[in-house]
Sequence to fold (607 residues):
Amino acid sequence: MALAGTGATALIACTPAAPVQRLGLGQTPSAGQIRGWDIDVRADGAGLPAGSGSVAQGRAIYGARCLACHGANGERGTAPRLAGGQGTLADKAPVLTVGSYWPYAPTLYDYIRRAMPQDSPQSLTVDEVYAVTAYTLHLNGIIGAEAVLDAASLAAIRMPNREGFRPVMQ
Amino acid sequence: MDDVVRQETGAPAPAPASPRRRRFIARGAAASLAAASGAATLPGAVQAAAPEILPDNLPPNVPQWMREPGAGFLNPPYGLPSPFEKNVLRKLPDQPAAFPTATRTPLQHLFGSTTPNGLFFERHHAGVPAIDPAQHRLMVHGLVERPLLLDMKTLLRFPAVSRSHFIECSGNGSAEFKAPGRGTVQDIHGLLSGAEWTGVRLADVLAEAGVLPAARWLLAEGADAAAMTRSFPLAKALDDALLVYGQNGEMLRPEQGYPLRLLLPGFEGNMSVKWLRRLKVGDAPFHTREETAKYTDLMPDGTARQFTFRMGVKSLITAPSARQVLDGHGFREISGLAWSGHGRITRVDVSVDGGRRWQAAALDGPVQRHALTRFRFPWRWTGQEAILQSRAVDEAGNVQPTRDALVGSVGRNSAYHYNAIQSWKVAADGEVSNVHV
Fold:
């Protein structure tokens, strides 16, 4: 199609930096196919699904699915620390956690959904991910014990180290 | 010793069961064991320990391997290195890790600027998935006119390119921020490799999807258990980004992203997302966990730099290097690798006196953009203590910093982008060690 006639000439003449004409290769995924794989959540909360979860629910899920690697309060375990460390970033041995370092709360939802628990990623339901997100933020003193998170309330959270990043592009 | 030096000229090759043959096999096994323990001859005539020399294989004697026919065709058909190179291996972390992390390339054992695929360093975030290429798909969606679903057969129909590029983990060498590491160059800087990659220009695939005017950034996502994700600018995608399936002439190895990985030349290694399954076009960075909580550079004042995608200009002397022993005075070649995320290497200077005097090294050509470049410098060691250093310059004018200059500007808390000049001390007895000067 696009390769016929002058199209073929253009292909031969093109430089490595210049994209060629459309080749007509590949299929178009259905909306349902895209929905299944389109799991990312942006820093501003775009992509957060409908649903909700509480700190209390998150505490139970954490105990069953997360505690073995992250420890009782998210402060000790074989996996990276989740809690504590606020105010240590300029120390000789800074402690980088969700509460001390992460600039955006929706990123926590994104990461838990795609990669946790480590032994069975993408096995938690939407509500379970909200609950574990809520409990992790609670461990860091960012939300209270009674809190329930959904898309709007998670996106509205301001993280302690939100202003801690110097934008550069190198 | 009598039987070792006795020469049996004109005798037919001994049968495998003969006593002499058994002795030979035993010695061969001993040599292999010696190689496995690191006692084999190293590149650059630098030796960790003297290998066993068998006089009946040296002149004037005819070596054993000339007195009988050699082996037949290779078994396995996909060949292996010589059994005498058993010590040339990737290295796992010194301490057992609870989660998959990295293996390191034995740069001190390699030649030229290409890393063999079996020795290419690895870094995983949730292990190596076993992916059937027939079932693998790449989805391109977001701010595009026409979302795309591509299988491997279709990707192989796109116009292909082959280019040499390095990949370096952004954490390579970062322990040196704190103190001089005591291991080999592999232990200290082994999260670096280079290969010739074959694949499709990402610009061509994006042209196929039709990028909308609001597009500025892309999200790349892997099909591993971490669903590894990084954002990168559309400008990089249209400049030189590749979707690669070939590495040094063969399909990617599983640990390198088989059957498909992104390659962002010159950018920190984890951004070249392996097992690539999805590219989403957006108008802003996505700020994933990896590019906020992990691969950002913490400065002494407690703020962090974001984003530091390009790997800085860096070089490294690989021969001689730490834990090696110079086996005699006189001529030897100093040799190493230079690379930069900012383009081509234009110059490498070498110092043998701790940086007081510098002289230009020779560069092996062709010198390519975002590729490992081998440099060479002739040296005559007189037996006196020496500090060997190399300093690279790239086409953007970046000069590799001293360690003091680097630590002075970014402190010691960053876990990434350590590119300071590396110093190897040669002691009077020939032993080489890592020092901070």
User: Anything to note?
Assistant: Chain A touches chain B through 50 residues (CB under 8 Å). Residues 60 and 88 of chain A are 29 Å apart (CA to CA). The longest strand of chain A covers residues 52-54. Chain A has a mean pLDDT of 90.
